[in-house]
Amino acid sequence: MADVTRRALALLAALQTGRAFPGDELAARLGVSPRTLRRDVDRLRGYGYPVVTQPGPGGHYRLAAGTAMPPLLLDDDEAVATLLGLATLAATGSSGEGSLDDAATRAYGKVDQYLPRRLRPRAAALRAGLETGRSAAPSTSAGTLGVIAEAIHRRRPVTFDYTDSAGTATTRRVEPHRQIHQHLRWYLLGWDTDKQDWRVFRTDRVTDLRQQSRTFTPRPLPADSGVDYLRRGLDKQRQRVVLTVDAPMAAVADVFKYQDVELTPAADGGTRAVLGQDTWQWLLPHLAFLDADFTIHEPAGFRAACRRFADRLKR
Prior knowledge:
The protein is an alpha+beta fold and 315 residues long. The chain is 39% helix and 23% strand.
């Protein structure tokens, strides 16, 4: 199957040059027999690519003109995954004009026209029978993400206006390193040339983004990955909490799904959880939904505060 896919892609790449190829030349180019070439051409047609054949002396193969974007070379599972990914992304944000979720909504509505004909009924059935719940999250501009991606690829600094959580507006100059998606938020991680340090910026708070023409040499990141660096920053003001819950790991993972939590099996089917929390109060809703016994091992202050709260509930 890998060889078949490789041949199909090589054949498509040759035909997309716009040339008309004699059969023997194209077969020699791909290293296959004329019979295998005919089968590969039929396979491309099955995917929806309009390959025109001229038989007889002087015969050739060519890709029909006027196909600005040929059908996507997706199998059934890939087509379903593409639509589900777009539907999920479209349900995140406020669907403002130019936002990433708005672009996903529009793409979701038209992607089936670029699929092979055999996949269009399945795509239509999936779209007709799928609903996604909207998740409240800040909308991020698709154009902003695109400019940052290009700047990272070309190693070009960017400048932008930034408004922090306190409402303070500044102009920043940054060598972009990574874009990170975490907990329904998009972040830009980069080296702030004015602060001479690594910084993380919420992308939805970035405006007037401009890419510079000069290039920079990437610096080594003081973390294993961008996600690891982001987590460390988000957890900087939080306290390390360790607890054991008398509940299966799947149940604990479900209630802490929006937390950076490390889960490991504990004795008797329980679960050990390690996470960071701003205050002890944030633990209570999660633990209440579990409806299971638990033990807070650290910090001692969280344990004492929960005991006081339990006494208040009894009264």
